[in-house]
Write a structure and sequence with these properties.
Alpha-Beta Plaits, ten-stranded mixed β-sheet, four-stranded mixed β-sheet, binds zinc ion, 421 residues, alpha+beta, 13 helices, 3 domains, elongated, 14 strands
């Protein structure tokens, strides 16, 4: 390797700094010596950089000292990079991974020494210890394992804690997207910790720590977590329906997240079948597929119209209902946060558009209404009026207090054509 092929400038200034680095009383490894010039040239390692610069001095140098094991800047971490690789591999033993990101934590004295020596030698081209170590650690790890270093979206993070002499690992979550239909009016979307004991287990929850025996989250992410040998799960839905509402039609998009998975390559078709078999008609999932962490934000941010079916009880003549529904179709509601959720949501006014409302059935005191409305509309309150907190509302328009017997979400109008949401 020559200075010509690497673009390393061999100016008097560079020669001067090279002499100063050689003259330092602190012992330095070839990596840390070359790093004073780290931002100069390309396509070579720092020890190679140092080699070229030294031979360029064209002066009779004292016989080269053996590479010190205790470098004043890195403490010998670069010379022992293979030991760091071994430590890293021990920490993630038993985990499946194909991509990784390396990081490092240094003592303040390492960083301070480096900065002080930059000043002493007058180097303006120094590369930081951390950047160089992370890169060399990553290169060595890739060589040893054949796995791929990624800056973003890696499966694990390996952090070398240099002063402590150990590697810490973070195993990133595994994500699956899909759609769920909920056919059971007694289960919530997510695991709901017991209000009395906050999850520790008490008499109220019969030791389960939960308000409800199961949830869409547990029925979906539970089997995935078992299959991936994770240590927990999270569930992210595109909105949520009330516990007593069914979710029908094509179902609701979700992302299930498995925490700290040991296994990352699952037979997704078999997992889907397993989930549906175990949930025995309480829920049904479709379109299960692996996805990225970014999809969590996407599924939570997307807002789409929804269609509902409400069965209502009230003694009202058919004509009067139809007249009221005509008035409500296309109307903008003003909804104050409903009383039933006010304990956990901010009390505010929201404006929501009703696209369409129509009656589909009437028998005695019961009638069925189908509604298509903007995301975030409180449908039960649209019917009852919630003590006047929703304006206008069906009860006031027909002049009789109405009761919601049942509510189903019929459809979420996300990307009907093409890609699943
Ligand atoms: Zn060093
Ligand atoms: Zn409890």
């Amino acid at each position: 390797m020559t200075s010509a092929s690497t673009g390393l400038p061999l100016s008097p200034e560079v020669r001067e700094v090279t002499r100063k680095v050689l003259g330092l009383s602190e012992p330095l490894c070839t990596e840390c010596s070359g790093r004073f010039f780290g931002k100069l040239g390309h396509g070579m390692s720092n020890p190679e950089r140092w080699e070229i610069l030294q031979s360029n001095l064209q002066e009779t140098l004292p016989a080269p000292l053996p590479t010190p094991s205790e470098c004043a800047i890195c403490g010998g971490a670069f010379a022992r990079i293979d030991a760091w690789v071994e430590r890293a591999l021990r920490v993630v033993e038993g985990y499946e991974w194909s991509t990784f990101l390396c990081g490092s934590r240094w003592g303040p004295e390492n960083l301070a020494t480096e900065e002080a020596l930059w000043a002493t030698t007058g180097s303006k081209w120094g590369e930081s210890l951390r950047t160089a170590f992370n890169r060399e650690f990553g290169k060595a790890l890739a060589r040893a394992t054949g796995k791929v270093a990624l800056q973003e979206g890696s499966e694990i993070l390996l952090l070398a804690d240099v002063p402590a002499g150990r590697v810490e690992s973070t195993v990133f979550s595994l994500y699956f997207r899909g759609r769920y239909r909920k056919l059971d009016r007694t289960i919530p979307q997510t695991r709901w910790p017991c209000r009395v004991c906050r999850g520790r287990g008490c008499k109220r929850c019969e030791g389960t720590g939960k308000m409800y025996p199961t949830s869409v989250e547990e029925l979906t992410a539970g089997p995935l977590t078992e299959l991936a040998q994770g240590n927990g799960h999270r569930f992210h839905g595109m909105g949520r329906e009330d516990i007593d509402a069914r979710m029908l039609g094509r179902g609701r998009p979700f992302v299930a997240e498995v925490l700290s998975p040991k296994v990352r390559t699952l037979d997704v078709a078999a997992a889907l079948q397993e989930i549906n078999t175990r949930a025995e008609g309480r829920i049904e999932i479709t379109e299960l597929a692996p996805c990225a962490a970014l999809d969590v934000r996407k599924v939570k941010e997307e807002l789409h119209d929804k269609s509902y079916r409400v069965v209502v009880r009230g003694e009202v003549p058919e004509e009067k209902i139809k007249e009221a529904l005509n008035l409500l179709s296309g109307c903008e509601l003003v909804q104050r946060t409903p009383v039933r959720v006010a304990h956990r949501r901010a009390d505010l006014m929201r404006h929501r558009k009703i696209r369409e409302m129509k009656m589909t059935e009437k028998e005695g005191q019961l009638f069925t209404v189908e509604v298509r409305a903007e995301a975030g509309t409180y449908i039960k309150e649209l019917v009852t009026g919630d003590g006047g907190r929703t304006q206008p509302n069906l009860s006031e328009l027909v002049g009789t207090p109405l009761e919601v017997v049942s509510l189903d979400v019929l459809e979420i109008h996300d990307n009907v054509e093409g890609e699943p949401w």
